[in-house]
Amino acid sequence: MARFTVNAFICSLLTYGFAQAQSSYSGSADGLTTVAASTATGTVATGSGTQTSFRAIFTVPASADQGANLLPTTQDPEAVDPQKVCPGYMASNVVRSEVGFSATLSLAGPACNVYGTDIETLNLTVAYQTAHRLAVNISPANITTSNMTQYILSDELVQQPNWGNDPTFSFTVLRKSNGDVLFDTRGTKLVFENQFIEFVSALPENYNLYGLGERIHGLRLGNNFTATTYAADVGDPIDLGIYGSHPFYLDTRYYEIDSHTGDMTYYSGNNSAANGSYTSMSH
Ligand SMILES: *[C@@H]1O[C@H](CO)[C@@H](O)[C@H](O)[C@H]1NC(C)=O
Ligand SMILES: *[C@@H]1O[C@H](CO)[C@@H](O)[C@H](O)[C@H]1NC(C)=O
Ligand SMILES: *[C@@H]1O[C@H](CO)[C@@H](O)[C@H](O)[C@H]1NC(C)=O
Ligand SMILES: *[C@@H]1O[C@H](CO)[C@@H](O)[C@H](O)[C@H]1NC(C)=O
Ligand SMILES: *[C@@H]1O[C@H](CO)[C@@H](O)[C@H](O)[C@H]1NC(C)=O
Ligand SMILES: *[C@@H]1O[C@H](CO)[C@@H](O)[C@H](O)[C@H]1NC(C)=O
Q1: Is 214 exposed, middle or buried (0-12, 13-18, 19+ CB in 10 A)?
Q2: Are 251 and 207 in contact (CB under 8 A)?
Q3: How far does residue 143's CA lie from ligand 3's centre (Å)?
Q4: What is the pTM for the complete model shown?
Q5: Looking at the predicted structure, is the pLDDT value of residue 67 above 80?
């Protein structure tokens, strides 16, 4: 079981940056070359006269962050500016409702097709869902089964969450492809107070959980790990939002694949078999 407790006053900090180990080896430009065998292992004499052997542990080289030099269109003086050449839309069929309105938006001139193909007709709905939340939805008016999934995910593709009230409210989230239970609050109570929130979700045996704040600790949080995250830290560098509150975790699960049936079985072991076939999924 993982218990997530968030005290809104003292522990809203969660940051996600991982210090990268410094590598003293230089790799090739693709950043993936490992060190030459001759320098990868060796022995050193320690002060007490004993010898300690070592071998290089592969680590991501500093050059790994040298990506392609991409030029965004907003910074490219030769790129076409859509604001200068596109026609915009005109609203018609405006229908007011108690909480907003809907309308049809039609291209107000010849399509510009600058970075794709202009959609001729759009549906617009605007609605106040609460006093503080306005929902604005713009989507193509003419969608058929051939292209619906580009714009709208149907229930067939997105499994609906299951919920129940026995003995109190709980819900589960399943992975559609294999029925794996990804989130499960059954048998636990939701606590929702103005300065305290607690919810509980089940985890599989020997789970692999990552994230939930920056700290000096192995990347994998380990089982039964308890930690407090605080909202206070050193001042932020300007424009670089280092510290913030982003409660986020990644749960990676490994499955052994049956070579005959293709069935996937959750794998809780620490070591993989050399001849085994595995796959992983994260959420
Ligand atoms: C767009 O609105 C029209 C008119 O209300 C409706 O007939 C049509 O089904 C809507 N399109 C979509 C994709 O919802
Ligand atoms: C919607 O798509 C159908 C199928 O291609 C087409 O016959 C129809 O004219 C289109 N309607 C609009 C309003 O674009
Ligand atoms: C979806 O496909 C239909 C033809 O099946 C086409 O008429 C319509 O314009 C397409 N809609 C969008 C938004 O691409
Ligand atoms: C988990 O940690 C708590 C607190 O350190 C400890 O009391 C408990 O025995 C641990 N449970 C397991 C299964 O290791
Ligand atoms: C995996 O490692 C953990 C921690 O080292 C240990 O508690 C657990 O028993 C191991 N599981 C197996 C299946 O070997
Ligand atoms: C993998 O190797 C182990 C040990 O040699 C053997 O018991 C097992 O049957 C092998 N599994 C497969 C799928 O070949």
Answers
A1: middle
A2: yes
A3: 5
A4: 0.53
A5: no
